[in-house]
Amino acid sequence: MSDEMGLFEAMYNCRAMRRLDTREVPEEDLVKLVDAANQAPSGSNMQGARWLIVRDPEQRQRLADLNRRGVEAYIGPQTGRPDALPHQSADKRARMLKSVVWQMEHMHELPALIIACMEFGQPVDAATMARGGGSIWPGIQNLLLAARALGLGATPTTLALGDREAVAGVLNLPDTMGAFCLIPVGYPLGRFGPVTRRPIDEVMRFDRWS
Amino acid sequence: MSDEMGLFEAMYNCRAMRRLDTREVPEEDLVKLVDAANQAPSGSNMQGARWLIVRDPEQRQRLADLNRRGVEAYIGPQTGRPDALPHQSADKRARMLKSVVWQMEHMHELPALIIACMEFGQPVDAATMARGGGSIWPGIQNLLLAARALGLGATPTTLALGDREAVAGVLNLPDTMGAFCLIPVGYPLGRFGPVTRRPIDEVMRFDRWS
């Protein structure tokens, strides 16, 4: 695999790509994403992460409907308030919200929606879900990096999954499984490029915070 | 960066390395780890992740003491029960527990302890922490992969951080910051190698779970 993309190159150029082409993605590549996700560590090595690749058009439509409800609830209170998402410039915020709306309008057409779930081995409630984050998000990050290396856009959203019962109904999840995020995957319409982040001096200290 | 480690090579060979040498790690490399972590995505691009690199001997001793308390509480109920961690073979479980105990005994001597924190912009409680996972663990995974590429061992543990007030006291965290995990970093005493995970057929489905 010596001709594969370098690790740091993938990490530093993994922009959130929400605008995706409707063109189909080879199943082999979708499975590569999940296989990469499956290599990530988990608490006590429990390996509870589970992955659904949704391509069936009716299933995508159902998930797109759930996402629309979540996005409208998220966007509603923000668009009217000039102080919403204050950590970002007005310009950047507006662009992010536009791309979230684009994703909402087109989600049913996107080639694959990958759902990151966790099998807890016991009935899931909010407290269970709260404990699961450290065992599912490392795998999601592996998946995003793998997508970048394969030239695929992939940006997770949790907005579709707020109604846990409705999600479990659409995906036939047993009551021991919870869904953490939905990741639309496809060929990007825009260009990849470097991410912009806070300078390291703002986010790092030695020995103690203050 | 064409001579850097490939993305998939790093992901598939990123074993949990708990036994580490006491040899110092160049500051430049520790900063590279945090810089890689800082590139990861976060919910609504809030970029609340914060990173502490602890090298001061007294600070490491304090964290090692907190970790010992957490490990003893974790290990205590498991060692006596043959059905503990049932997802793993008895042999594998015994090896993992031995390495957790090794880490406990040696934590104060390890060259650097990196603490992954989140700045929430409001006082932290358990509910706040539960919401933060998706914005901190992708960065932690970037850090682990970067460590692998630099030949460093790094395995996160949450056992040191159960007593939130004590941790905040040691690290001088404001009440708006929470600590999610502690990652000892150093040159591994063992050898890197491929991870072993459940077969993909067990963890992946198309369209619906059942």
Q: Can you tell me about this structure?
A:
Two copies of one chain form a homodimer. Chain A has 210 residues and is α+β, with helices and mostly antiparallel strands. Chain A has one domain: NADH Oxidase (3-Layer(aba) Sandwich). Chain A is built from seven helices and five strands; from the N terminus they run H-H-E-H-H-E-H-E-H-E-H-E. Chain A has a four-stranded antiparallel beta sheet with strand order 1-2-4-3. The first copy, chain A, is globular and about 45 Å long. The termini of chain A are far apart. The relative contact order of chain A is 0.23. The mean pLDDT of chain A is 93. Chains A and B meet through helix 1, helix 2, strand 1, helix 5 and strand 4 of A and helix 1, helix 2, strand 1, helix 5 and strand 4 of B. Strand 5 (204-206) of chain A pairs parallel with strand 1 (49-54) of chain B.
Strands, helices and their partners?
2 copies of one chain form a homodimer.
Chain A: H1 7-12, H2 27-37, E1 49-54, H3 57-79, H4 90-106, E2 112-119, H5 126-149, E3 153-154, H6 164-171, E4 177-186, H7 200-203, E5 204-206
Antiparallel strand pairs in A: 1-2, 2-4, 3-4
Helix pairs in contact in A: 2-5, 3-4, 3-6
